[in-house]
Design goal:
165 residues, alpha+beta, 9 strands
Length: 165
């Protein structure tokens, strides 16, 4: 029933079974998370104004991905920049991509340590991966396969709550 309701709002770019599989896979990761950056010291963490340290992965379809991606919501009151189409999607190959961007700067994050949740078909409680920073003044786009200019990140599932204003 929920899958049918979500499919009704998705653009018909992919076969329904592919969309349904995307929804089932994504449902294992939907929820709220707190992000940590192990390499940041207290001062660096306080200076962060762009990378949300608390966020929600929703099951709302994101139109830019043709129905296979979902809306991500910033729940970090320190990040006050408007995010342009923040989105996420789970890949059956074993990764989860999360995109934060103002249009001028951002962090694409690829969580790759997901296999336990994906193999056991349970909800994920921890996601580990790398965040790659970029700015529109960079001479080259970020290379997600390269660790240059990237941070190791860990996201822990937490209860959802309304963001502080």
């Amino acid at each position: 029933m929920v899958v049918a309701a979500i499919l009704a709002h998705c653009p018909p770019r992919l076969p329904a079974q592919t969309l349904a599989e995307s929804i089932v896979l994504a449902s294992r990761f939907a929820g709220c998370y707190e992000l940590s950056v192990p390499s940041w010291n207290t001062k660096e963490a306080r200076m962060n104004e762009l990378l949300p340290m608390r966020f929600q992965l929703t099951m709302l379809p994101e139109s830019e991905t043709g129905g296979i991606g979902f809306v991500a919501r910033n729940q970090d009151p320190k990040v006050h920049y408007a995010m342009v189409l923040p989105s996420w999607k789970a890949d059956p190959g074993g990764s989860l991509a999360l995109r934060w961007s103002t249009g001028y700067a951002g962090y694409p994050i690829r969580f790759t340590e997901l296999s336990a949740a994906m193999l056991t078909k349970r909800s994920a409680t921890e996601l580990r991966g790398r965040a790659h920073s970029w700015k529109d003044t960079d001479p080259y786009p970020p290379d997600l396969r390269n660790d240059h200019n990237s941070l190791q990140v860990v996201a822990h599932r937490v209860g959802c709550q309304e963001p502080e204003k």
